[in-house]
């Protein structure tokens, strides 16, 4: 019997909490519902979830703080923000804190279910990718375990540990924006604080490795005010 996918739902409005929980359970998900951020963090540390649905406006500890705390421990679990504020500033803030998607209240429950399905599916693909030791971009293959890049003509280019780690992170989150905070936590582990220019230089190096035209990149992108993205043009 296939195990149900688990969702942590954090919403302080009772009627909305109940409606979302019921509809997700009807779709076959196992839902753990809580009403505040502190309880959510406690539950998150004790159990494993495939997705977190997180209201922004929560008592005591808001959704942005909860998301930021979760991302210090886990950069991979998808997070969907729910908010009553429909402003670009809030959306950018959510992405900077590590959210994967954003849904503005009031919303259609069918749209929520669709977004949940997409995020969970993407997360499961990412889990599968982690089992791979290599990844091919164009005519070059990255070998994560040996820290090298091999061209189809046999030429091998050595990669630094941080180049390999950043490539792996961006590829695991392919077609998504990855925030600078997530990169700091995963690649640099907050031991040092590289400037945005430092990370930009890594992206420029990746363009030299992989892009047919460095001035018009198709794989590696810097997204101003948000972060960085690897685009898999073949997916």
Automatic annotation (TrEMBL):
Keyword Protein biosynthesis: no
Keyword NAD: no
DNA-binding span(s): 132-232
Response regulatory domain mapped to chain residues: 6-120
MF terms in GO: phosphorelay response regulator activity; transcription cis-regulatory region binding
Modified sites of kind 4-aspartylphosphate: 55
Keywords: DNA-binding, Phosphoprotein, Transcription, Transcription regulation, Two-component regulatory system
SMART domains referenced in this protein's UniProt entry, alphabetically: REC, Trans_reg_C
Alphabetized PROSITE patterns for the sequence: OMPR_PHOB (PS51755), RESPONSE_REGULATORY (PS50110)
GO BP annotations listed: regulation of DNA-templated transcription
Domain OmpR/PhoB-type: start-end pairs: 132-232
Record-level GO cellular component terms: cytosol; protein-DNA complex
Annotated protein name in UniProt: Transcriptional regulator
Lineage: Bacteria, Pseudomonadati, Bacteroidota, Sphingobacteriia, Sphingobacteriales
């Amino acid at each position: 019997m296939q195990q149900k996918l688990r969702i942590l739902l954090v919403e302080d409005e009772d009627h909305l909490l109940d409606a979302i929980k019921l509809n997700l359970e009807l779709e076959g998900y196992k839902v753990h519902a809580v009403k505040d951020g502190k309880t959510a963090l406690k539950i998150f540390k004790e159990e494993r979830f495939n997705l977190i649905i997180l209201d922004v406006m929560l008592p005591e500890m808001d959704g942005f703080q909860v998301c930021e705390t979760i991302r210090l421990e886990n950069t991979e679990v998808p997070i969907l923000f729910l908010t009553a504020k429909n402003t670009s500033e809030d959306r950018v803030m959510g992405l900077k804190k590590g959210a994967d998607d954003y849904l503005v209240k009031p919303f259609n429950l069918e749209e929520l279910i669709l977004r949940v399905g997409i995020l969970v599916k993407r997360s499961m693909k990412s889990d599968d990718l982690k089992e791979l030791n290599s990844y091919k971009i164009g005519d070059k293959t990255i070998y994560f375990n040996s820290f090298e890049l091999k061209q189809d003509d046999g030429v091998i280019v050595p990669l630094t540990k941080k180049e390999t780690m950043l490539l792996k992170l961006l590829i695991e989150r392919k077609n998504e924006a990855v925030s600078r905070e997530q990169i700091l936590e995963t690649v640099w582990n907050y031991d040092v604080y590289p400037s945005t220019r430092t990370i930009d230089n890594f992206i420029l190096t990746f363009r030299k490795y992989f892009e047919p035209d460095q001035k018009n990149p198709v794989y590696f992108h810097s997204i101003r005010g948000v972060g960085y993205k690897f685009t898999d043009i073949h997916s």
